[in-house]
Design a protein that fits this description.
The chain is mainly alpha-helical. 75% of the residues lie in helices and 0% in strands. Helix 2 crosses helix 5, helix 6 packs across helix 9 and helix 6 packs antiparallel against helix 10. It starts with 7 loop residues before the first helix and ends in a 6-residue tail after the last helix. 32% of the residues are buried.
Length: 209
């Protein structure tokens, strides 16, 4: 029941600044999308999970697709920043490889596996152009960050640097997802170290300028 003069969003969700409300709604949507997939998720379920009325949800996001795209953008920024930070924090290339691998493993297993990585790497909406563009942009952004560093350090042309970068970021993403699906058969630190040892043997054949 609502009190006179107070909308259901105030009673159920409380008054929050717009940015805080948006963050709350995205968190609720992430849980529902990860659990159910895009097609089975309902805006009613997301509003209920967030503890707000459905009109409040639509005040922030005009539809389910827009909400999903906002989540993709949020997760892409988190992964992109983690990779870029790993590259920027050191000039030692082996440490950079370690950092990039750790960024992917940390993203996949963030907060004990909140499943957010599935929105990017295992989406059930891959045929939607707006989703496909964003997923491809995530891969391009992380690959390009590594490629720029490889090209700068080795003197390789951009095409060759991008090929090496694609191998590195692709291996990191696939291995991290396999590791999680296999129920973490080794510790995250050991998994990163094993991949680092493998990849470094190849990358180290391209000496710095």
């Amino acid at each position: 029941m609502t009190r006179a003069g107070i909308g259901p969003e105030v009673v159920r969700g409380g008054r929050l600044p717009r940015s805080a409300r948006r963050k709350q709604l995205l968190a609720a949507a992430q849980e529902v999308f990860v659990a159910n997939g895009y097609h089975a998720a309902a805006m009613d379920d997301i509003a209920e999970r967030a503890g707000v009325s459905k009109p409040v949800l639509y005040q922030h996001f005009p539809g389910k697709l827009e909400l999903y795209l906002a989540l993709l953008d949020t997760q892409a920024d988190l992964l992109g920043k983690a990779v870029q930070d790993a590259l920027d924090k050191t000039t030692d290339n082996r440490e950079r490889i370690h950092g990039v691998l750790s960024a992917y493993f940390g993203f996949v297993d963030r907060d004990g596996n909140d499943g957010a990585f599935r929105l990017i790497f295992e989406t059930d909406l891959g045929n939607e152009p707006a989703v496909r563009d964003r997923v491809e942009a995530v891969a391009q952004r992380t690959m390009q960050a590594v490629a720029d560093t490889v090209a700068s350090d080795t003197g390789l042309d951009l095409a060759r640097a991008e090929l090496l970068s694609t191998a590195l970021t692709g291996a990191a993403q696939v291995a991290a997802r396999w590791w999680l699906a296999a129920d973490r058969p080794v510790t995250q630190d050991e998994a990163v170290h094993l991949l680092e040892s493998l990849l470094w043997r190849g990358i180290s054949n391209f000496p710095r300028q």
